[in-house]
Design goal:
Strand content: 25-35%
Distance between the termini: 22 Å
Domain MOSC: 98-238
CATH architecture of the largest domain: 3-Layer(aba) Sandwich
Cofactor: FAD
Number of helices: 9
Mean pLDDT: 81
Domain 2Fe-2S ferredoxin-type: 509-593
InterPro entries: 2Fe-2S_ferredoxin-like_sf (IPR036010), 2Fe-2S_ferredoxin-type (IPR001041), 2Fe2S_fd_BS (IPR006058), Beta-grasp_dom_sf (IPR012675), FAD-bd_FR_type (IPR017927), FNR_nucleotide-bd (IPR039261), MoCF_Sase_C (IPR005302), MRET (IPR050415)
Number of domains: 5
Strand order of the largest sheet: 6-5-9-8-7-10
Pfam family, one: Fer2
Low-confidence stretches: 43-65, 111-115
Largest sheet: 6 strands, mixed
CATH topology of the largest domain: Rossmann fold
CATH class of the largest domain: Alpha Beta
Structural class: alpha+beta
């Protein structure tokens, strides 16, 4: 059963309608108290105890052959509404406002015929959740998460945590049925609603993002061969070929989708660093722009995640170069991967990228921060760039610099490129006039960033936070265009915010939607996404928790975040789903839906 909002036209019966057309837990947590079940009349074969089974995907039809029966609505176990079902349709006198007390009036309720998918994804038929994954997430959070939060059709016991993400693109057999696993389930705010309760209590998407680096839990499947599935049935993999990015599921696989990459090879590049070549099953990483990074997710072997800048690409693989931290937990595990191992990855990410043009380029890196310089120089050399390029790198010793020969070869292929290597620990200067001893000072940074008399350079800086801060400070003092400074500091996973902050500035504030149309915001309006929807605007959104970045919208004015965003937010934009105004605002007007 779906409760239509009336804001989005319903498709003809038997055709999938987007979940945005219905009220859902993402917007109304009190809906979690509501239960619906179909009860067949005597002609439908009610069992001797007088109780009918609740409606479920796995059960048989509960209506009589002529489509008659009764729909019962209960709240917290108490029957609050019922009505006869005639020809697969039902009209209820009550409304969700009366049942829950917080929703707007809607059109009469409609019970869709059996077999019609009321999914948020058109091609999905079954959702599968790994119970070991739920337990691992509970342990990481220190909170016991009820698996019912994820509302799966099938719960699996016996897989390692997060192993279900490695099955995406494959076929499995459960009992007599064969299923194709075609996409991870990116979780939304509905999982933050306590099962059987009336409120959001834990920000589950933020928990996923902070602890595992993505927002997915569970997988979508479609039925290839129908059959009976019973509790205790074993699961067998019957086909291991990954799907390509084509067909009806192509928009479900994106750069942020966690997927199982295969290690092509792993070789030491210095005594302290290892270079790993990875094959992306969907080929997304090979198209990374110079300066972008990928993310490795620990899965069952180690908790957490880390970002690694892509240091080289080829038509079929990408390379990352990692410094092994002796007292670390994550880097020793990654550096211990070997050929044919599989690891969960996502990406590419990052907007500190090289753009095409003729402006000068200044690159300043330190330590393992050399990785974006390697990829940028590779690209410049392979495209025969004539841009003026200067590279500065700081390291303890010449032997501690991974792939330095590769960078020098790329520099030699360019018509106007200078490279300077600062060594902070060696006593003897290695051969080459480009090598200097000691740490660079402000004058060295200033010379590096000078560009030419006509144009400010595009500046790329990567290294420890103090190094990045020094370079940026010199660039500002020199009056260089700060919009051309591309920072890539070392990054650590944030702590999750499991609850939203309270609103500190009650306003009221005026929110203008582009032109003259405007709305009045108060704390009762909720976040800016809720305000937009209540004013009849349909904003693209998915997680409603600051994780996916789908609702990023240009905003002029001051805002505050109720939850620290996990997604990267483009300059000048705000994630409407977790933001409130702290001044009058102008928001780029989303498409206004018809109210008919």
């Amino acid at each position: 059963m779906g409760i239509a909002t009336g804001q989005i036209p319903m498709q003809p019966r038997g055709i999938w309608t987007t979940y945005d057309a219905f009220f859902a837990l993402t917007k109304s947590p009190a809906l979690g108290m509501i239960r619906a079940r179909l009860v067949a009349d005597a002609r439908g074969g009610v069992r001797g105890n007088g109780q009918a089974e609740p409606s479920s995907m796995g059960g048989g039809p509960l209506l009589a052959a002529d489509g008659s029966g009764t729909l019962e609505i209960s709240r917290a176990g108490e029957l609050i509404a019922s009505a006869p079902v005639v020809d697969g349709l039902v009209q209820l006198a009550g409304t969700p406002r009366e049942w829950v007390g917080e929703l707007d009036e809607v059109h009469p309720l409609t019970l869709e015929e059996a077999g019609v998918s009321l999914w948020d994804v058109e091609t999905a038929q079954v959702s599968i959740v790994n119970l070991a994954t739920v337990r691992a997430l509970s342990a990481a959070a220190g909170v016991d998460l009820d698996p019912d939060r994820f509302r799966a059709n099938v719960y699996v016991e016996g897989w390692e945590p997060w192993a279900e993400l490695s099955v995406v693109g494959k076929r499995i057999r459960i009992g007599d049925a064969e299923l194709e696993i075609f996409a991870p389930i990116e979780r939304c705010r509905a999982t933050s609603a306590r099962p059987g309760g009336s409120e959001w209590d834990i920000n589950v998407p933020a928990l996923l993002g902070a602890h595992v680096g993505h927002g997915s839990c569970g997988v979508y499947a479609r039925v290839c061969i129908p059959g009976d599935v019973r509790p205790g049935d074993t699961i067998r993999e019957v086909c291991g070929e990954h799907r390509h990015l084509e067909g009806p599921d192509s928009d479900l696989i994106s750069s942020g989708t966690p997927r199982a990459a295969t290690v092509l090879k792993a070789l030491p590049s210095t005594e302290e660093t290892v270079s790993i070549e990875l094959v992306d099953p969907y080929g997304l990483l090979e198209h990374a722009r110079p300066g972008q990074y990928l993310r490795i997710h620990g899965g069952d072997a180690v908790r957490g995640w880390r970002n690694y800048t892509i240091s080289a690409t080829s038509p079929s693989s990408v390379r990352i170069t990692i410094r092994r931290e002796a007292d670390g937990r994550f880097s020793p595990w990654v550096c211990g991967l070997g050929a044919d191992d599989q690891v969960l990855v996502s990406g590419p990410y990052g907007d500190a990228v090289l753009s095409e043009g003729t402006t000068p380029i200044a690159i300043a890196t330190a330590g393992i921060g050399i990785t974006p310089a390697l990829r940028i120089m590779q690209h410049l050399a392979s495209t025969g760039s004539s841009r003026t390029v200067s590279v500065m790198h700081v390291a303890r010793s010449r032997d501690a610099v991974p792939h330095w020969g590769e960078l020098e070869s790329a520099a030699a292929a360019l018509s106007d490129c200078t490279v300077t290597l600062f060594l902070t620990s060696e006593d003897v200067v290695p051969m080459g006039s480009s090598v200097r001893m000691g740490r660079p000072g402000r004058e060295d940074f200033k010379a590096q960033l000078s560009g030419d008399a006509r144009r400010d350079p595009d500046i790329f800086v990567c290294g420890p936070q103090t190094f990045v801060a020094d370079v940026v400070d010199v660039a500002r003092d020199a009056g260089l265009d700060e919009s051309r400074i591309h920072r890539d500091p070392f990054y650590s996973p944030p702590d999750p915010m499991l609850q939203r902050r309270p609103v500190t500035d009650p306003g009221p504030f005026t929110v203008r939607w582009g032109g003259d149309d405007k709305s009045r915001w108060t704390p009762a309006s909720g976040d800016l996404l809720q305000l937009a929807e209540r004013s009849g605007r349909r904003v693209p959104s998915t997680c409603r928790s600051g994780i996916c970045g789908t609702c990023a919208t240009p905003v002029q004015g001051d805002t505050a975040y109720l939850v620290e965003p996990f997604a990267e937010v483009p300059a000048g934009c705000v994630l409407l789903c977790v933001a409130v105004p702290t001044s009058d605002l102008t928001i780029e007007d989303p498409h206004k839906e018809s109210q008919s």
